[in-house]
Write a structure and sequence with these properties.
By secondary structure, the protein is of the alpha+beta class. The protein is 25% helix and 35% strand. The chain contains four helices and seven strands, in the order βααβββαβαββ. It has a seven-stranded mixed β-sheet with strand order 1-2-3-4-5-7-6, sandwiched between helices.
Length: 171
């Protein structure tokens, strides 16, 4: 069973471990382990950023024996962009192909369907991340644009595809 819920401070260590173990095989991640704190507690605290005004929501997926994934959503940087939020998704390698990413995306979308201020959610996906791309397509996301050669994967430049999900809301 997958339980998606808002992250709390008690999740900091587990989130840090999830990211440390999952980032190696996450082709859409904008970060490498070198970009992040070594201490899992500090890493989890930094990533969840609970209470900070630019964080719209941070969701985690409980999968029985621990956290299987995280979905972190930031508000648009400028007031003119506040109707659009940007999501990041990471699923632990041991929890992939179990529906964790799908459930995180669905709960996140439902969260924003109830927010009249948000009309669009965006997500950046590496052109090499076919699994995530298939997932967003199957969930009704639309390709908004592509940025050629925008992501450096160990010396190989690849495109980032920017996907969007319209969730209503009044701008």
């Amino acid at each position: 069973m997958i339980l998606v819920r808002p992250a709390t401070s008690t999740d900091w260590h587990a989130v840090g471990v999830l990211v440390q173990e999952g980032i190696f095989d996450a082709p859409s991640s904008l970060y490498t382990l070198d970009d992040l704190p070594i201490d899992p507690l500090k890493l989890g605290q930094q990533l969840t950023r609970l209470g900070e005004e630019d964080v719209a929501v941070c969701l985690v997926a409980d999968v029985g024996l621990g956290l299987g994934g995280i979905c972190h959503v930031l508000w648009g940087e400028f007031s003119r962009c506040r109707h659009s939020v940007h999501a990041s998704l990471l699923v632990h390698p041991g929890a992939r192909r179990l529906g964790v990413g799908r459930e995180l995306l669905r709960v996140m979308a439902e969260h924003f369907r109830g927010d009249d201020c948000v009309s669009k959610i965006t997500l950046s996906v590496s052109e090499t991340d076919q699994n995530l791309e298939r997932l967003v397509v199957s969930e009704g996301w639309r390709l908004e644009r592509a940025s050629p050669l925008a992501l450096d994967l160990e010396g190989r430049k690849v495109a980032l595809r920017h996907w969007a999900l319209d969730v209503g809301g009044e701008v």
